[in-house]
Amino acid sequence: MTSELTPQEAARGALRAGLPLGDDRHEGVAATANHIHSVIVTLRELDFGDTPPAFTYRAGQENVDATV
Predict the structure, then answer these.
(1) Local mean pLDDT, 10-residue blocks, the chain (68 residues)
(2) pTM given for the model
(3) 43-68 in b/e burial notation, b at 16+ Cβ within 10 A?
(4) What's the Cα-to-Cα distance from 58 to each of 9, 49, 61, 65, 67, rounded to whole Å?
(5) Measured on CA atoms in the order 29, 10, 8, 12, is the torsion positive or negative?
(6) d(Cα 67, Cα 2) in Å, to the nearest integer?
(7) Neighbours of 13 (CB within 10 A)
């Protein structure tokens, strides 16, 4: 696992992307990026097996008599 993004690294990355941040935003951006990274790591660990892609779902066509 990689280490968490620091506020200073977030500021440098944003600046490289052409999005300079105010000093008061570095910590919040780093925290948000770290959270997003943790969610992506979790999603990558899931085994979706034979789960069909979302475009195959048709709203309103569910089996209302299905047992839960």
Answers:
(1) 87 96 96 96 88 76 62
(2) 0.65
(3) eeeeeeeeeeeeeeeeeeeeeeeeee
(4) 43, 20, 6, 16, 19
(5) negative
(6) 43
(7) 15
